[in-house]
Amino acid sequence: MSSRATIAAVPDPRADDPAAPIARHPRREAQEVAGDGYAAYVLEPSPPAVLEGEWFADDPVAVEVVGDRTGPALRPVPGAGPTWDEWLAGHPEHVPWAAARWLGGRRRLEAPPADLATTRLAVYVVSPARRRANGKIALRSTFGGIGTPFFGADEQVRVVGTTVVRQRGETAAARGITTLNDAAAFVLDGPPDVAWAEGFDVPPPGDLDEVLPVAASASSFLGDWFGFAWSVLEELRAEATSVEAGRVQLWPEHFDAAFDCLSDGEHRRATFGASPGDAAVAEPYLYVTPWHFGDVAPGELWDAEPFDGALLPLSAFVGAGAGAGDQRATALEFFRRRRDALAG
User: Fold this and answer.
1) For residue 85, what are the contacts with CB-CB under 8 A and spacing of at least 6?
2) What pLDDT score does 240 carry?
3) Which end of the chain is less crowded, N or C, counting CB atoms within 10 A of the terminal residue's CB?
């Protein structure tokens, strides 16, 4: 980790507005809520930036010594120390704060709006901001949206609603999303990085001066979808049965959140993920794709038609869907049944 001083947590009346142009430090903010008796952990990336040469960003669920905190870990997933949900039972006044960040007091997903935002902003502007600093392209779920892990001199770029926020050290600025050229001038101090995406199956950039069709309702849903996905996938990853687990990351070229686990040497490895929808499946969905599908025993667990694997559409656990009672429980059961079947 960087040795630079972390951003001071200064109370701000805009702190509950995820699009506010303030320098955020999610783990420090959580520590202020939890108090000195706990070491607070969150799902979002936090400063300091990961040094060059380290592939992954900070781990949101790893228990490690941070600063001078010595209390039990307060975690977003079950494990060493209490979870935020357990802590909130005695601190109900903080439920709205935790629910907004998908740490506890779980909110519910609603049906998606008609038109979800495209991936163009993430592919050509947001991800390249991190890539030019350390060669890494993956993104993460952030408060109310998506963004980069911290990179360089404690810098982050995040998209919230119809706003893009650029944070550098202890300052931040925000700009409404208009065109790719305008967003890139704000984030990259230059044009969009079109060339690097040519090898990926991504939406073409189109007219760089065309106003991007980013609707507030669609962007708000995407923020909730990836917040929900992170809370579920990180819990699955943290379980002891998810052996040899990778890291949950949002891949801009696919625009889905995913991680891998189980042994590739035994041909059991698989990817577990959440997509907001694509050309093959129009609605958001959860999925499991075994790396060696030919070695998987056929059966009802593996019923996805667009690809080899399993698929759970959002419509199965929102509204009147059979799994709409406890959405996280439905999602976790979907993933666990297939992970356990692969593990044998």
Assistant:
1) 104, 105, 106
2) 86
3) C
Q: For 131, left (φ over 0), alpha (ψ -120 to 50), or beta?
A: alpha
Cα distances (angstroms) measured from residue 240 to each of 105, 139, 332, 340: 24, 25, 14, 12
Length of the chain: 344
pLDDT tens per residue across span 148-190: 999 999 999 999 989 999 999 999 999 999 999 999 999 999 9
Cα–Cα dist 46/13, whole Å = 20
- With vertex at residue 104, the alpha carbon angle to CA 102 and CA 107, rounded to the nearest 5 degrees, is 60
Residue 251 exposure: Cα atoms within 13 Å on the Cβ side: 16
In 80-215, alpha helices (H)? 84-88, 95-100, 120-121, 127-134, 180-187
CA distance 139 to 152: 15
Instruction: Give domain limits for the chain.
Output: 120-215, 217-343
Q: Is 320 exposed, middle or buried (0-12, 13-18, 19+ CB in 10 A)?
A: exposed
